[in-house]
Amino acid sequence: MAESRVLPYIAGYGDDRDLDDLIRFGVEQAKVRFRANAWGLGTMQAVGHDSGFDAQLYVWGRPYFVTAQSPEDVAETVLQYNRCTPDQVDQIAMHQLSILDSRLPGRVRPDTEGSLPADQHLAEGISGKVVLLRNAVRALRAGQPFTKPNGEQSHPGEVLTGNLQFVLVEFLANILPGWIQRGKAWPTLLEREAELTGYSGLVDNSALLGLLRTEFPALEWEANYTIPTNYEIGGFVSPPAVQLTRHWLARNAEELLELGEDDDDRDFYRVAMRKTDEALALAARIGGAFVEAAEIYIPMEGSMN
């Protein structure tokens, strides 16, 4: 989808409305995610924090509301949500409750506080940055400065090179959401801190530049191997390397856990690595890639997966 639809759109090809079907899907997915998250929050409220319910996994970790145990079952459940309508969420969520405890479906109610913006505002939030980069490419091809939404003028090449990977991943995350992990526990960072040797499958994110790097070779493109700061994209695993990275993670799990100074730290890394493996399992299931990112979702600001 990135190479066949989104990157060509940003590059200025096709019609301005060529992504409308994906944007509509993203709007419906926002409703699915909102309802699924309501079940996760409702469950947390019903069972309490001392019940063994891991909110960092079930609420602020996995996409939607998923309690399945194996990475493959987690991936399959994520796809069930991704393929359902908002009206079908409750049926999937009730099954997830029963996996935790067969008594929960009769006890838990979704948290109905809060509401989503109108469809138009959701659509604008999904498409806005992609459209901005498309307009930057137009200005670049025309040799003109680019005017930002705040009225400031910038070189369109700088707008493009400074934002392309993040905007691409953020857009795709509206179509198929990813995992949330607080703290510093992304795999390229753990790999470096543990000073592991051997090929992990993790590489820099230059693959996300696609045809833009080819069409504008004079621009100063950057590609990160790990997440350098907030609102940035880090390491990348190509589809053929996904299973290799899963094996690498499993093979080095004990050594990576030793990065923790105490049991709490090791539990933190254990959950983080579990989430990484689940995300890789989803990538394997759909024949997709894996990518690290910072601030795609910000739960404290109401942005959930």
Task: Describe, in plain words, how this protein is organized in 3D.
This protein is mainly α and 305 residues long. Helix content is 53%, strand content 4%. The protein contains twelve helices and four strands, in the order H-H-H-H-H-H-E-E-H-H-H-E-H-H-H-E. It has helices at residues 2-10, 20-47, 55-58, 71-82, 89-100, 119-142, 156-175, 187-193, 210-215, 242-251, 253-257, 263-286, and strands at residues 146-147, 153-154, 233-237, 290-293. A two-stranded antiparallel sheet has the order 1-2. Strands 3-4 form a two-stranded antiparallel ribbon. The chain is globular, with a radius of gyration of 20 Å. The mean pLDDT is 94.
Looking at this protein, list some descriptive labels.
4% strand; mainly alpha; 305 residues; 4 strands
How far is it from the N-terminal to the C-terminal residue, by CA? 20 Å
The H-and-E topology, N to C, reads as: HHHHHHEEHHHEHHHE
The Cα radius of gyration reads: 20 Å
Q: Main sheet?
A: 2 strands, antiparallel
Low-confidence sequence ranges = none
Instruction: Calculate the mean pLDDT score and round it.
Output: 94
Tally of DSSP helical segments: 12
Tell me what portion of residues adopts beta-strand conformation.
under 5%
